[in-house]
Amino acid sequence: MPEETFGPDTRLRDRLLAGDEAAFEDLVAANQGPMLRFARNFISRADVAAEVVQETWLAVLKGLTAFEGRSSLKTWIFHILANRARTRAVREGRVIPFADLAAPDDEALDSDMASRFAEGGGWCQPPAPWEADTPESILLRKEAMDRFQAALETLPPAQRTVVTLRDVEGWSAGDACNVLQISETNQRVLLHRARTRLRRALEGVLAR
Amino acid sequence: MLSCRDVVTLATDYAEGRLPWTARIQMRLHLAMCSLCRRYLHQMELTKSLLGRLGRHPERHEIPPAVREAFRNRKAE
């Protein structure tokens, strides 16, 4: 079969199968952090999450010959991780119901947003211009970044998971939905809510 | 016609390219005329970009020894 049929990750797979330890080191180094964070969406204990991630790498090595390159290697790895994390969470009796779209304080935030509009739907509390208007300039402001990080960390779990995969790690909507096993619409609702909250947190610090 | 409230509600659908074309046109028309909503969408875009920057320098993790060993054992097969 022509190599174009498969993704570039089949080449990586072949190098790994051939014993290229440097390539494997790069793969693990790049993904270990995101995998640990991802596992924590299903598993509350850090040590258990680390175990599940380790088991995942072992499963990846065992199953490497079966990887056909239809998805990216990363997505394939995260699929295995998601399944293991879910199974482990069920076994430990702690299932974080991921599909919970509604967070407890979503309603309060919705009505807060609604209050910014007049009856006809026009702004009555419009967005103010911000003191810093580019990512680079915001990154330089300690208070804004502290608040932003705090807001990210305290997002409702499902919203945090989606916005982290999509916006921090740059995954496509398709890959995110695939690994999280949620619909495109659900994923978008969660993404919208997360971005809305985070924007609001920045507004609190940056609005003139 | 879309209201400003509608624009805010649809902000992510629009950014993701998931609005049906009629709504997308209405969105563009509204944004052409409403600087406040342009500002809001710009701030949502800034938020997204900022998140992307956070992901840009991921910490490099060490391979757990058991995993390195499994790799080496596999190589020996």
Tell me what the structure shows.
The complex is a heterodimer of chains A (208) and B (77). Chain A has 208 residues and is mainly alpha-helical. Chain A folds into two domains: 3-91, RNA polymerase sigma factor, region 2, helix turn helix motif (Rna Polymerase Sigma Factor, Chain: A, Orthogonal Bundle); 106-206, Winged helix-like DNA-binding domain superfamily/Winged helix DNA-binding domain (Arc Repressor Mutant, subunit A), CATH 1.10.10. Chain A contains ten helices and no strands. In chain A, helix 2 (21-39) crosses helix 3 and helix 2 (21-39) crosses helix 4. Chain A is elongated and about 65 Å long. The relative contact order of chain A is 0.11. Chain B has 77 residues and is mostly helical. Chain B has one domain (4-76). Helices cover 74% and strands 0% of the residues of chain B. Chain B has four helices and no strands. Chain B is elongated, with a radius of gyration of 23 Å. Chains A and B meet through helix 2, helix 3, helix 6, helix 8 and helix 10 of A and helix 1, helix 3 and helix 4 of B.
* Overall average residue pLDDT of chain B: 92
Kindly report the oligomeric state of this protein: heterodimer
H/E series of chain B? HHHH
**What's the shape of chain A?**
elongated
Sequence stretches where pLDDT stays below 50 over 5 or more residues of chain B: none
| Strand composition percent of chain B | under 5%
Main pleated sheet of chain B:
none
Q: What is the count of β-strands of chain B? A: 0
- Compute the CA-based radius of gyration of chain B: 23 Å
